# Entry
Amino acid sequence: MLFHSPEFVLTMLAALLLYWLFPRTRIPVLAVANIVFYAASGWQYLLLFLAMSALTYWLSRAIARGVRPRLLLVAGVVANLLNLGIFKYTAFAVSNLERLLHLGLDPRLFQLVLPVGISFYTFQLLAYLVDVYRGQVPPARSLVEFWVFIAFFGQLIAGPIMRAEDFLPQVENQDRIRFQPREFKLGAFLFTIGLLKKVLLADQVAPLADSLFAQASYLGALESWIAAYLFAFQIYFDFSAYSDMALGVGHLFGLTLTPNFDTPYLAGNPPEFWRRWHITLSRWIRDYIYIPLGGSRRGEWRAAAALLTAMGLSGLWHGAAWTFVLWGLYHGLLSVGHRLWRRFVLTRFRWPLPDRAVRWASVFLMFQATTVGWVFFRAEGARIALHMVRQMLTLADLHFTRINALYLGLIVFLALLHVAEFWFRHRQAEIYDLWTRMVPSPVRALAYTAVVVLIAIVSAPRQAAFIYFRF
# Structure
């Protein structure tokens, strides 16, 4: 059920009406809304999700009581990873075994339909189990409340990946939530902003990026850069649009979700990029993979190995293909290189330039490095990705045409929009207050109506799913 579909809007409106009119039934209303939302993808996947949630809930209760906590933690982690692995990685594993051992297996026979949101809800279930085991959070008081926490339909499919310490107390203290007009309006505002980003930006850039990547083997250097730039902005506007809409849905219900993006293409180095891109996943990888592997506490070599392992697994989490693993390892190498640069160069050398010039140069170079990485994420195979990257880095077959000039103009426009979004984000509250205070209600209503009509017209030919729905 897509966020920008009539079915979702009607489901959400019905849930909102019952949620605010009958405060004592909020938990049942949200629980049923979660079921209705997820059942749209298939009842069999809903039953699987319910089963994994119930198993994790009962294991967490037993762990909290001290009943063989380590054994039950391992059992819960294995069960959740097995659930994810069977659906997401079986065909990938069979394909690689067949390539190595020639067993006569057809990987297509092992290709299963991926349940929507399985990667995200698996990580939430794992984090919850580990946090209960570590004593960082108490287990949920009831299975229904746990279901509302783990399956909140506003963020279930593509995040943010919510932690129990941040979201479960909000679910368990529904009686403290009061209707606040400003919060409700802010929710509608964020939801609308996300819709506009999805329909007017991401979905309009997508066909251009798709057409170029469809002929990736024949692209020259400039066309390869253009394809990578277009996809960089497509995936950002698409994914951040979903996150904005998720935050908006949360505010509509009086709930606060964790922001997932902070204009990441204005980052000046790899660690900063991952503090601003898919923020909740980055924190998850840090807390449950990188730090347990030793982090930066055991020397540079151990830190480098932990970084590469964590980022490689992050890439594999995104998809069952070697291109995703290469994408993760590429970012791991960028992070390792930055650590070495900072330790052995920046501590002994200072640029003879103003700090602002150094900052913008760093942002520019980091964006180029990020764009190169997106080729691995988007290309249809490792060979094609390596061909494009080789073209881009060697500037092979470089030629400038009128259509390329138009593409570059569009890319500059999208980059300026990204800078404008940074300015907007840091003044969001005052802009919103100014909008509601200075613009008369009839004019605001007319503007909202115009936005709805525009979205309906633009999205009518096709409703494109969010990119991260595939992960």
